[in-house]
Amino acid sequence: MVEKVLSFLGRGEVWVAGSALVVFLVLTWVLRGAPPGQAVESEDDLEAPRAGYRDRIVAAVVVGLLLILGGAYVAIDRGIPWSLPLFALGFGLLLLLIRLNRRYRHASPSLRRTIEFAGSFLNTSLLAGLLIVINVLAFRYGGRPLDLTREGTYSLSSSTLNQLTSLDRPLTFTMIFGRGQVALQQRDRVVQLLEAYHTINPRLIQVTSLDPYTDLTRVEDLVKRVPDLSLLHGGGVLLEYGAGQDAEFRVVRNQEMFEPIRPDQIRSNLDRFESVFTGEDAITSALIRLREGKKAKVAFTTGHKEPDTSDLDPRGKGIGNWKSRLSAIGCEVVDLKLLEAEIPEDLTLLMVVNPSDPFKPSEVAKLRAYADRGGPILLIVGNASPSGLEDFLKSFNLEIGRGIVIDPRSKYEGKLELVLAPARSGAAHPIVAAMDPNRLVLLPQAAPIHVYGMSGHGGTATQPLDRSLVPTVILRTSPYSWAETDPSNPRPTLDRSADEPGPVTVGVAVARRAGEARPGVVPEEQPRLVLFSCATMADNILQQIAPTNLDLLMNCVSWLRGRPDTLGIPAKSHVALTLAVDEQLRSRLIMVPSVTAMMLIIALGLIVYVARRE
């Protein structure tokens, strides 16, 4: 019996009814000037109405106020349509009573007090309603909300925006999370991200949720269509691209959106929950794979002591992190040894990264043949040792010069050869246009790049070997840098007779014109090659220090593959701090302010009553 009573008293409807009764009694007391059931003092003015009439008006006004408050509660709990009758009755009753009893405002202090209170409440309600309507319209039709966080937590990358705005079929996100404390905390962050997705294209994007412990029928139906869901542990997001039998599915697991949580990150009372969130990267990459369908094949050259593509050590010198990012966006990444194999016909991109041994003439011939048939190439080579690609680069109007770029002002950890270059230091090119201008690229021991047809060292312009190719500088160091030709000097200074002054070109993109240039017509360009003169910029350890390096390389891959919709995706992480409390403390946080507010209202009523009695 006691448990039933406690369960009944714990229901929200009981608390709402009890609060309404308390508010009715307190307001009636305050407006009458005496508690309900106690006679009020007579009013001397001959035009004042009788006490019974005044009591009925006060009670009716309080009922009107409660109807408006009840309408607000119903609007929050059930929806706006259900609240409209209550709002109409409340506002109509108050307006009618104010109009009928305004003539008594000079003769009856209690009615004057009641009318003024009702009028103030109406004005406040109308103002609050207007602000709510404005906010609803702003959120629905005002575009994306402003993100004032320092790391841009709630801003979507340009790659995500490109994907969402170019959708041609419906896209449904289904969130599948458990009921655990950690799962609930992580679900909130995923909800924020998917709501941001929905605001970009609400016509085609829908966000739903699924409780795997209660919606068993729906879970079984989804598992039949998406077998990967049966292996889903810990929650995740299901992407459904299309509708009906033609829909394509992709599952993003919770482990892909959050880094593993260490035991010391979760305290016994769960008062602080810290998570590193990379959900946008995982979900947008899954969407790109869905839309591309067939995987695009890209290759890294091997056989010249290039960095290991399988090395995932974040402090190592491999490039496994970059390879993983390429796989995440739907690329089939292979290693290609040119001495033993031909370049596949279906290869969409060939990458040469930091070769220590030079390419042999037979390998260069394969590179030329691949480039002649329009195959794009990404080169990351320096001048520490001969690469065997010198003549190949000249055919693209490029040459790697002498010296090591140093910068006494923009450097990492005080080392001159660890140069930091602004991500958008070059021309307005699609590769760098989506980059944040405040982000920096770390370039250890970079070499200068000379472009035929542009002014180089000494200020003289060389003639391009192929005028159909258009090189564009996409990355430069600062004006305070230079290419030092004497690295053994402990205190290097700029020698203009031997050193190349800054800003120094360290990144170039080359495209081929599709047709002749005509006045007033911008010719289309075919991406052909990107060259960076910092051989180690793709190493895992550098990407760990400067994530901008990986973002820049991924943009180069997208541009060379002719996929502008994938430009601008960042591999950013977000640390979210959430206050978590147990059920008992949560109840106290709700009960204490509520009880305090009620006691304050009663105390104010008593003060008003005592003051008026005196």
Description:
This protein has 614 residues and is α/β, with parallel strands linked by helices. It folds into 3 domains: 141 residues, no CATH class; 124 residues, Glutaredoxin; 253 residues, Rossmann fold (3-Layer(aba) Sandwich), CATH 3.40.50. The chain is 40% helix and 19% strand. Helix 2 runs parallel beside helix 17 and helix 3 runs antiparallel to helix 4. It is elongated and about 115 Å long.
User: Which radius of gyration do the C-alpha atoms yield?
Assistant: 35 Å
Structural class of the helix and strand makeup? alpha/beta
Strand order of the largest sheet: 7-6-8-9-20-19-16
Quote the beta fraction.
15-25%
CATH topology of the largest domain: Rossmann fold
Averaged pLDDT: 80
Major sheet: size, sense and barrel closure?
7 strands, mixed
Q: Specify the oligomeric state.
A: single chain
* Total helical elements: 17
> What is the top-level CATH class of the largest domain?
Alpha Beta
CATH-derived architecture of the largest domain: 3-Layer(aba) Sandwich
Task: Indicate the topology.
Elements: H1 2-9, H2 12-32, H3 51-77, H4 80-101, H5 109-141, H6 158-165, E1 171-176, H7 181-200, E2 205-210, H8 216-225, E3 236-241, E4 248-253, H9 254-257, E5 273-277, H10 279-292, E6 296-302, H11 320-328, E7 331-337, E8 347-353, H12 361-372, E9 377-380, H13 390-394, E10 398-400, E11 404-406, E12 411-412, E13 415-422, H14 430-433, E14 440-444, E15 449-451, E16 469-476, E17 482-484, E18 500-501, E19 505-514, E20 524-532, H15 540-545, H16 548-560, E21 574-578, H17 583-613
Parallel strand pairs: 1-2, 6-7, 6-8, 8-9, 9-20
Antiparallel strand pairs: 1-3, 3-4, 5-21, 10-15, 11-17, 12-13, 13-14, 16-19, 17-18, 19-20
